[in-house]
Each structure stands twice: as C-alpha cells, then as structure tokens.
Write a structure and sequence with these properties.
Layout (H helix, E strand, L loop, with lengths): L6 H4 L3 E3 L2 E3 L9 H6 L11 H19 L5 E5 L9 H15 L3 E4 L5 H11 L4 E6 L13 E5 L2 H10 L4 E3 L4 H15 L8 E4 L1 H16 L12 E4 L2 H9 L4 E2 L5 E2 L2
Parallel strand pairs: 3-4, 3-7, 4-5, 5-6, 7-8, 8-9
Antiparallel strand pairs: 1-2, 10-11
Helix pairs in contact: 3-6, 4-5, 4-9
C-alpha cells in the first residue's frame, strides 16, 4: 500500500457486535474500550443505545402492571375540562357505568376529563388506571388513580392504551385527544387491531369534525365513506358504554343498523 494512501480508506474492516464496519466507519473505539475508558460522568446514560434499555423497561413495566387487569376501556378527553362542567360530569358518568359493568378504566392519569373518568370509576367501586407522561406542564397523576404508571415515551404509553383495552371512549378534547383518536382509527382501518369500537361522546362537539371528514376528506377521495363506520357518536354516557362494550346496536353512516 502506498504511504500516501488515505488512512480513512485503508482502515481494515472490523466487526462491532452485529455491525460490519468499513472505511471511515471502522475507525471507532471497541465497545469494551468505550465502556471502561470513562470520559465524562454519567454521559453514557444519554446515549441512544442506553435509551433503548429505558424504552424496553417502560414496556416491561407496563406489560407487567397491566397483564392481569382484565376487561378495560381507555377513556380520553381534555386535561383542561373543569370540575362541575358538562364534560366533567360526562366523564364521571362514563367511569361509573364502566365500573358497574365490571370493566376497568384506563386514562392518561391527568386532570380534567381524565380525572373525571377515574373518579367515576372509583366511586363506582371499579378499577381505575392512569398512564401518565413526562411533560413540562402536567401535575402528575390525579388523586383518583388506583394503579398508576408514569412514562417517558409517548409511543410506549400509547401501546398500553390499545393493548389492554377493548375499545375507546373519547370525550371532547384538544390535540392530545385528537392524536389518540386518529391513531386508533388508523390502527382499526389497517387491521392492526380488530374488534375495537371507538365511541365519541358529545354530538355537538364532534359533529363539525365528522361533517368536515365527509365534506372534504371523503369528497376528495382522501378516505373512504366506510371509514366513518370506524367511529360512533353519541350524547349519552350510558349509551357510549353500551356501544363500546357491544351491548347496543351499532348504526352505520347511512342510519341503518350494521352488524357488530
């Protein structure tokens, strides 16, 4: 080899665990060398590989805590809903009805509508679960959560909402609520989850969104008209619980009853 050759191009290929490294990529420290030659206090905990272990731990903790939960429904809604308001009372009623049916309630564990659903569940002598998330403006789990888990990562938390629930009830809410709603719709549409009813509570609140989906998304061919059958919209908390548990007839978008 010429003494003028580029050192980066002359580096011998080497393996680093499952990785095959060549050329410039091969000029890195060995794993055990990096582990034993500490260059900064605590720096390793901020590396991406270490974050994988944190993510893994969140899944393990979530699966372990909820594996024996039994039948459950995830309830979503705004953290800004005020106690005593119409939507707060709806959330409490949903919790009470689910508890009466022997079904656990899973919420995001925060204030507002989430607190209302947890509170109604406790008052109904049911199982109240809260899945919290690390945010700069949240106050932690509400006082009505009996079984609480705090997450760093949204995607780990979202998995728990779907994996351990047999359906969603969605109260009026903002961006977080819409995020959960549309993700659930996509999972059902793509058949990543099956037999997963999604019930929206509050006809006046959700009606304009439904009309926009029909008048814009369906009209322009962005979604199919049958995709609207993924969701049901009701005003009565008791009916919402009946729909999500499959004990009430399910109307289609054309007003006819469709099989469950």
């Amino acid at each position: 080899m010429s003494i003028n050759a580029d050192p980066a191009k002359s580096t011998q290929p080497r393996r680093k665990g499952p990785l095959e490294l060549r050329r410039k990529q091969a000029a890195v420290e060995m794993s055990d060398q990096h582990l034993l030659d500490t260059k900064g206090a605590g720096q390793f905990v901020h590396s991406d590989p270490w974050r994988v272990l944190r993510i893994q731990s969140e899944f393990v903790e979530g699966f372990g805590a909820l594996a024996d939960l039994g039948p459950a429904v995830s309830v979503f809604g705004s953290a800004r809903t005020k106690p005593g308001s119409q939507y707060y009372e709806m959330g409490m009623a949903v919790g009470r009805h689910l508890a009466a049916a022997g079904v656990a309630v899973i919420t995001g564990g925060g204030p507002g509508s989430m607190e209302a659903a947890n509170r109604g569940t406790v008052e109904g002598n049911g199982v109240s679960v809260g899945l919290g998330i690390e945010l700069p403006f949240e106050q932690g789990l509400n006082q009505w959560v009996d079984l609480g888990i705090n997450f760093r990562y949204f995607f780990a938390r979202k998995t728990m909402f779907v994996k351990y629930a047999q359906g969603f009830i969605v109260l009026p809410g903002g961006l977080g609520t819409l995020d959960e709603l549309f993700e659930a719709m996509v999972l059902v549409q793509t058949r990543k989850v099956t037999s997963f009813p999604i019930v929206l509570l509050g006809v006046d609140f959700w009606g304009p969104m439904i009309e926009w989906i029909k008048g814009t998304l369906v009209a322009e061919g962005m979604v199919s008209a049958k995709d609207l059958d993924l969701i049901q919209v009701v005003d009565d908390p008791a009916e919402a619980v009946e729909r999500v548990l499959g004990t009430a007839p399910v109307p289609s978008t054309n007003g006819e009853q469709r099989p469950e």
